[in-house]
Amino acid sequence: MRVLGVDPGLTRCGLGVVDGRPGKAAMVAVGVVRTPSDGDPGERLVYLERQLESWLARYEPDVMAVERVFADTNITTVMTTAHATAVALLTATKRGIPVVFHTPTEVKAAVTGSGRADKAQVTAMVTRILGLEVAPRPADAADALALAICQAWRGAQLARLDALAAAQGRR
């Protein structure tokens, strides 16, 4: 399964593509889309959309995994993150690519074994899991790869459980 992980943000949006299945993952690509914080918000969103479209066309993911926006005391940060999330959802949906949301705790638990892991631990485990010589930087890039790994591992397991439940007439 090929997964595009998206760590949404309007100033920095992390993108990571992973080919994986439970217990195995290989990095295909990683990057960060940057927009100037003092730029026109509409133009920044259009630029983000173009970059996401380019990644979707180039890497043809089976699914997009996006970090779920969580409440914060800084409403401006929450809103710009929500805008970036909406652009990711829109670009994937236009191409018929399913979008799955994961909380930061889910991603940390999938990658490190602990939902309380800090950013350094997540980056270290992403580096180890993918067999990278250098840790992905900035943290947005590592987080995007962690999202993709989480979906590749957990998403495949959940799909199998759903199929089993459906076959048994439970869903």
Taking pLDDT < 50 over at least 5 consecutive residues as the criterion, the unreliable ranges are: none
For the termini, the CA-CA separation is 24 Å
Query: Could you name the CATH topology?
Result: Nucleotidyltransferase, domain 5
The side-by-side strand order for the widest beta sheet comes to: 3-2-1-4-5
| CATH structural architecture | 2-Layer Sandwich
Number of strands: 5
How many domains, as an integer?
1
How many DSSP helices?
5
Give the topology string: H per helix, E per strand: EEEHEHEHHH
Please identify which CATH superfamily we are dealing with. Answer: Ribonuclease H-like superfamily/Ribonuclease H
Helix content estimate: 40-55%
Question: Describe the biggest sheet?
Answer: 5 strands, mixed
Rg result: 16 Å
CATH class: Alpha Beta
Shape: globular
